[in-house]
Amino acid sequence: MNKIFLIIQREYLVRVRKKSFIITTILVPLLLVLIMIAPIFLSNLKSGSQHIAIVDQSGEFSQIFENTNHLNFINLDRNTNLKNVDKLLKDMNWDGLLYIPKLDINRPLGITLYSRRQMGLGTESYLRHQLENQIEKQRLAVKGYDSDWLKQFKVKLNINSVITSKIGNKSANSIVSYALAQIMGFILYFVIFTYGSMTMKSVVEEKRNRIVEVLISSIKPFQLMMGKILGVAMVALTQLLIWIILIGILGSLVFAGSIPYLNVNPNSQAISQMGAQTSTTHIEKIIIGLQSISFGPLIGYFLFFFLFGYLMYSSLFAAVGSVIDDDTETQTMTLPIAIPVIAAMLIMITVIEQPQSTLAIWTSIFPLFSPIVMIARIPFGVPTWQIISSMILLIITFLVFIWMAGKIYRTGILMRGKKVTFKELWKWIRVKN
Q1: Where do the domains of the chain lie?
Q2: pLDDT by residue (tens digit) across 221-255?
Q3: What does the pLDDT read at residue 393?
Q4: Is the pLDDT of residue 213 over 90?
Q5: Phi, then psi, of 142 in degrees rounded to 5
Q6: What whole-number distance in Å separates Cα of residue 151 and Cα of residue 73?
Q7: Local confidence band at 263 (pLDDT 50, 70, 90 cut-offs)
Q8: What contacts 139, CB < 8 A, 6 or more positions away?
Q9: Which residue from 28, 61, 130, 357 has the least number of CB within 10 angstroms?
Q10: Which of 177, 178, 201, 181 is nearest to 189 (CA)?
Q11: Which residues pair with 99 in a beta bridge?
């Protein structure tokens, strides 16, 4: 056991002392928080205004366009010559010119936006929206209806999402659950590939440099393999825990600083009471959704599936590393490992749309998929028996894989110059000690 501990210590210290580890450990949380808060602050910044000229030959639309923080409108004479629009835009330094011909309100054709470069999607949407509203008003007027009178019949609904249970009701937010599912699923996908490959490369490097031959003289192959797997696992776990702490701290500080921009009080009764949510904003709903999630159990489940998912796949990566001599064989040998991981990621995308479907239930229990699929389902609420079944099967599968990997590792680590087939690997697994 002391020998395994020494291997773990060596693998751990070598990696955590690298500059790349320190840099990524600090930068990833900063980037994630920046991505989350950037839209909030950018939405409050005033960008450069665009100047758009209006040529309205009908005389009924030019007054509907009001200047905004981003758009300034200039009304031109309806008889303005448009034969050389490009020169006109260039001479007047306008960003665009909207031409509105005399329209048949039943077939409003011919409206054209001229510009010297592609206009933004928001600008085009605003212009289209204003024109559509005005045409709707004209159509209603022809039928004898007033648009203001018609507005009283329009309804905007807000559906309160509530999860019921024996201990009481709690509010829910599918957007928050959806985001958490994607983030956690992607992290596990990233960890399995990144740190699994790190284990494999470590084995290949030591085998190539013949360091392993020295190590095997004083330690059993299985002990060496376990030391490497657990050492890299400790590195991954350390980095993940630091990420969770930093993201939590940075997120709290940034959110507290962004409250004035959002005009949201997270402790207000209007947010906490379900009956008063009809006027809440999307951001308030997200706050409610975050408050309704039990992050303690969620983090516990995440760490479990993170650890055993990594250990299960990393044992296979270590086994592959022991039977290859150069990088040209890597893709062929790692393909059977990569396929279920990629499949789990694709299944997860479908599962978070229907988290209680038959596909979601069985793929989240199946061990090769469960580390990614189950953790993506948990934010939506999963019956306890399904989580326990998934955890038990994952542990059993890990033990089977580590036993198989040990058999392969013991034989392959000292083999050189021979291309190993999957058929030979199966023979090594079946050989009795």
Answers
A1: 2-39+174-430, 50-151
A2: 778 888 888 888 888 888 888 887 887 787 677 65
A3: 95
A4: no
A5: -60, -35
A6: 27
A7: very low
A8: 105, 106
A9: 357
A10: 181
A11: 55, 112
